[in-house]
Amino acid sequence: MVTTNKEFKILVVDDEEKILSVIKAYLEKEGFEVLTAKDGEEAIDIFEKEHIHLIILDLMLPKISGEKVCAKIRSVSSVPIIMLTAKIEEDNKIEGLSMGADDYVTKPFSNRELVSRVKALIRRTYRDNTPLAELLIINNGDLEIDVEKFIVKKRGENVNLTSNEFKILIVLLSKPGKVFSREELVNKAFGIDYDGFDRTIDTHIKNIRRKIEDDHRNPKYIVSVYGLGYKFITY
């Protein structure tokens, strides 16, 4: 299946009209469909009504802050988020990423660089891996994964996975029982252009286990295969 930018809908959230219009113009030139919001309340309203594929989110927003918008979205979805802010301190960046953002761009920024980051994140997130059903129900409903909406539920309750964690989970689910090496998981989940280390997979796996396993120390879903990697077991 070949995908084009026209298939992806992006939500840009910023309280500065000029920034909104410029980002919108650059993204539309690349073929993306773009929706905009000027405050956190409007952003959440649009997200709940539309099928959004990626969000560019400013932190300094009226009504509801960008941090709270991110937390709200992360409580129900793993949709990719790029944080956009004037804050440049390292602590701010770490805080933003720890709350679930996938990338972080500081103002002032190059619009071409931002578009490039959007394309890279779209490519890593929506790469045409082995097709999955839109809704996966595992172990009589113990786990439910809505592949289309980036939603994971554990016994009916939403599980707050980050976008990267969700991508890894989907790769594992694409072939239950198959052992994926760390390198394979990196390439399939993030792409060969990912500049992280394959050992970061261990951290992501640990976090996923804490969220979906009954006992993360004795996992029944994501099982380690010593010296080889990880596999997903279904029941």
TrEMBL record:
CDD domains: trans_reg_C (cd00383). InterPro entries: CheY-like_superfamily (IPR011006), OmpR/PhoB-type_DNA-bd (IPR001867), Sig_transdc_resp-reg_C-effctor (IPR016032), Sig_transdc_resp-reg_receiver (IPR001789), WalR-like (IPR039420), WH-like_DNA-bd_sf (IPR036388). Coiled coil: none annotated. GO terms for cellular component: cytosol; protein-DNA complex. One of its GO terms (biological process) is regulation of DNA-templated transcription. One of its GO terms (molecular function) is transcription cis-regulatory region binding. It comes from the Bacteria. May play the central regulatory role in sporulation. It may be an element of the effector pathway responsible for the activation of sporulation genes in response to nutritional stress. Spo0A may act in concert with spo0H (a sigma factor) to control the expression of some genes that are critical to the sporulation process. This is Stage 0 sporulation protein A homolog. It comes from Clostridium felsineum. The gene is regX3_1.
